[in-house]
Known about the structure:
single chain, mainly alpha, two-stranded antiparallel ribbon, 4 strands, 66% helix, 2% strand, disordered C terminus
Amino acid sequence: MANVDELMKHTGDFGPFQKKIVIIGSLPLILFAFVFVGVVFLGHTPDHWCWTPGSEQLLQECGWTEVKVQEVTVPHGEKAGSFSRCERFAVNWSKSQNKCDEVEWELSLNESQVVLCDGRWIFDKSYRTTVSEFSLVCEKAWLADLNQVFLAFGFFIGAFVTGYVADRFGRKPCVIASMLGLGITGVGIMLSPWYPLLLLLRFLQGFCGKGAWTATYVLVVEFFGAENRKFVSMVSRIFYSVGMVILPGLAYFLVSWRNLQLAMSLPCFLFILYYWIVPESPRWLFSQGKNREAIKVASNMAKCNNRVLPHNLQEMIPLEEKKEVPSVSFKDLFRTPNIRKNTLILTYAWFTSTVVFQGLVLRLGITGGNLFLDFFISAVVELPTGLIFYLLVDRVGRRSLMAITNFTAGIACLVVPFVSTNLSWLRKSVAIIGRLAVAIGFETVNFANTEMYPTPLRNVGLSVCSSASDIGAIASPFLLYRLANIWKELPLILYGVVDCALVTLLPEMSGVSLPETIEDVENLKRKRDKSKDKTGQRTEAELKNNSSVIL
């Protein structure tokens, strides 16, 4: 295979072309944010109480407000001023002749007679969600959790299928097909009249979303040299955070979940234009022996960057296209020692990062505050994530940054439950630090993952390892809501103890060229040691020269 990094130096590895491609390639991240955390608004559980036979007549004939009807028909809850959501008084007001005058007598007679809701509820009409439309409350509340679970399961299956497709048939076709599928499934969800059909479409949405996310990220990264790959992560993270900031605004103005779902899905169809705008990755083309196509892309890159390719470029890479390219398989992630170790550690890191990150996002829906404002503030807090990552990832190193952020997030999650509610400013400050640390750690895992696999396995490696995040996303809603039923702060204790210290065993890839073959990964330590020796020899020689000059 040709020396792709050498070719990138001739084309310019951080010129106008790369800056344009990273902006274009990061636009889908806004929509990925909608898909990943949109359930906070789509599946929010609004305030509700049991429907009671004849309650509509109390509104019409007695002229009562809904608040008074609720006081008469529903028993009080455990907290002062609250009402039961799943029980009602055993009174049929439609059979009462003088219902407006018989309230006290009926209540005194039936005060102890409380029954479960019989399948109908009255919901807060200010916001319509999947929960209110399909009545996913009380004994059906677990069905609401399946909304995010089916999406995550789609991510999990899509990780294996779309990762292989992107490495076998190209990053660009995978991106376009996945974005088209994301738009179609999103519109289908909006039109769904039945909840089981909605869950099926959520699974397919997750399947397509996984392919779009991984293939887009890898495609953009492969246009950059070793020194500037972190720029891709910074920009992509900023775009993702922008999507998080936009989402509560959309949800606030589009009070129907169907309108919100449509608004989040229609922009996906615009990415069909990528067929004419975005080129295929030259690294992937070289890895498949398609040198002529790769050189054509490289020439266009050089032209955009005001560079000139060497005239003897064709002679430098002769007859490569005649070589048979071996097919890739997820089994290759476990065949050799170093790649196997990287795969296992990254898999666990993805799992823990997602459980904590998604858990903290979903937790906003049960804290009891203003959902839109709380979500907006938490999203704004994440905006500096990309910039902080960019400034630290090379100075601190990938391994150290992952370890430090994991530790910081864990401590913050453990501290928050024990801070007095009277010190709300301190609770919020610690929570913000923890949320920011989780976001930086999550981005670092994603970034490091792409660097630790050779070109033929890069998309498969990212897809398979990140599939553990999908398992985490499946587990996260159940862990959050079930533990919160025991104690609202209990999920934070769990998040604090799942810290992943194994990341310190990963290789440090700062300043290292992207590996092109499996052998490059297996010999990585040896190459790095040689590089250090050469650097040390150069430094020693420079010191001697400087000393002789001084003397």
